[in-house]
Amino acid sequence: MPSDDERGCPKCGHDGTDVGKISTTGGGLSKMFDIQTNSFEVVSCTNCGYSELYRDTTSGGSDIVDVFLG
């Protein structure tokens, strides 16, 4: 487990984050009919804007932020 001074944004070390959601289409018929079949959580650093996508598990954003921050 990393120490407190190793936690933070992988790019700049800042510990402020924003969590959002995006949905995307898949291939084939879902693309043709614009059916959004893939959902992702987006965790972004509020300092530098570095972002990572995580497949939406609908269990809440706090676990994802912990992964992002280390």
Measured as a percent range, the helix fraction is 10-25%
Number of separate helices? 2
**What distance separates the N and C termini?**
8 Å
Rg over alpha carbons: 15 Å
Q: Sketch the topology as an H/E string, one letter per element.
A: EHEEH
Return the domain count: 1
Strand order of the largest sheet: 1-2-3
Protein name: Zinc ribbon domain-containing protein
InterPro entries: DUF2082_NA-bd_Znr
Pfam families: Zn_ribbon_13
List the defining traits of the structure above.
3 strands, 34% strand, alpha+beta, 2 helices, 70 residues, three-stranded antiparallel sheet
What does this structure look like?
- This protein is α+β, with helices and mostly antiparallel strands and 70 residues long.
- It has one domain (4-69).
- It is 17% helix and 34% strand.
- It contains 2 helices and 3 strands, in the order βαββα.
- It has helices spanning 29-32, 62-69; strands spanning 17-25, 36-45, 51-55.
- Strands 1-2-3 form a 3-stranded antiparallel sheet, covered by helices on one side.
- Strand 2 and strand 3 form a beta hairpin.
- The longest helix has 8 residues, at 62-69.
- This is Zinc ribbon domain-containing protein.
- InterPro entries: DUF2082_NA-bd_Znr.
